[in-house]
Amino acid sequence: MKLHYSLIGLVWMGAFLDMMYHTTLTSVLPKALTLTNPLMHALMFEIRPTVAILGAPVAGILIQRYGWRAMIYLPFQLLAIAGAVLFVGNNSLTYLCVRILQGLAAALLYPAGFTAVSRTHDETARGTAVAIALTGDVAIIIGPLLGGLLYDWGGRHLLAASMLALTVLTLLALFSQANSARGLPSDIPSIRDGLAASTSHQAGQGDLESIPQASSTGGMRPGGMTGGGRGYGVFANLHFVVCLVGLLVPWMTMAAIQALLPLYYATRYHLSASYIGLLLTPPTLMEIIMGIGTGALIDICSLSHQLITTIGGLLCSGSIFLLAGRLETHQLDVCQPIALTLFGAGFGAVETSSTAFAAKFMDDHGIADHGRLFAVLELAFNSGLLFGPLLSSIILFVTSDPAQPYVPLAALYIPLALLSQWSYVAYRGGPALSSGRWTNEQTPISSAAISGRDYT
Q1: What is the CATH number of the domain that holds 249?
Q2: Which keywords accompany this UniProt record (predicted)?
Q3: How many domains does the chain have?
């Protein structure tokens, strides 16, 4: 199992910076702006995932057209511009522009970054590589506290300078690695690349231009395209939809918890901000720990992605039901932090297994279009950030019951677990694996290309 730690580290830093920008501004906006219109205040929080959702499909097409190597620089440049914009002024328009730039950066960052991780690691390492890169979400833990401290100490200028410095240093590290002697890692040949090699070998190296071939940019050469030219239609598969739901539902729940629970704790139990932050730390820590552990279970123990999603989904459901049932107590009891911690464990397992299965699904079907793959996954992620707080806030407004927003979210994990269990039983791989036509008819060249070995 070979891991490209330098590339994983850069993608990790990208995810870290994205969530740092998102979470630091979450704590700063109520202090920086005195908005009396709740709709305008909500717009500041919702604009980032909205822009990311609209931009992700276009980003996937661009990444597939030009390759992840050409596109991976752009999100860091957009984040650097966002940091510079913070110096302009302390008004609604400034923060709105920053949020829009964040959304554009996120739309490109996750498809390009995780395409890079997926395409440069084989099945023995992909789950672990993706899991490590996903731990960039650790910024969720420190972002709100750090943003508040920086703003209190030095205002928006200190906050902007800190974020801009981090972004520029990461961008310089990316340029340095790309221009080094070793350069960025090479893509692992996919099954489709193996078929192309087999076809060219059997044709006596005849019409090479008609065969789709991977380019050095991580995309495709003009001679062809992956995915059979179906574009986003390749994702119209129930097994793949299950893995999308495995990303959507946990992020809806996490976003709803972060949006509503701090306010409830402050008004119901009169807790301080630091105490509230401490209570919200365990679920994120457990998400990271279980994410890495899940990647190891997939790669080392060959545990089924769908089985992990089933177990993790049931754990999420039970923990959120427990949390909802204990919110009406007169004082904070131990069950609430325990429920949040258990949710974090299930969240990490479901998120990592769903992301790793998506990459496996593409390989099983002989599709190298990982740019559009991670654009679709980015849609699911940002849809969770958008609709979780929106729906839970509406339910809270209608019912005035602090527990009710979490009950529907907890119930969503039950069909997710059932669908994942069905997928675990029914999934037999794609046509590239199940039909045998790409494995039984391989030439030595195609076999070597698929396995990643050199052919001599």
Answers
A1: 1.20.1250.20
A2: Membrane, Transmembrane, Transmembrane helix, Transport
A3: 1
212 falls within a domain = no
Q: Which two tokens stand for residue 110?
A: 């996750």
Return contacts of 200-203, CB within 8 angstroms, 24+ apart.
200/445, 201/443, 201/445, 201/446, 202/443
Least confident of 173-177, 367-371, 394-398: 367-371
| CA pseudo-torsion sign 174, 176, 178, 182 | negative
Total-model pTM: 0.67
Distance CA 220, CA 205 (A): 19
Assess if residue 454 is contained within a domain: no
At residue 438 the predicted structure's pLDDT band, cuts being 50, 70 and 90, is: very low
Q: Residue range 249-266: average pLDDT?
A: 83
Is residue 283 situated within a structural domain? yes
Burial 57-79 (b: 16+ CB within 10 A, else e): bebbbbbbebbbbbbbebbbebb
Is it the case that residue 27 has pLDDT exceeding 50? yes
Angstrom CA distances, 274 to 200, 251, 344, 452, stand at 63, 23, 20, 50
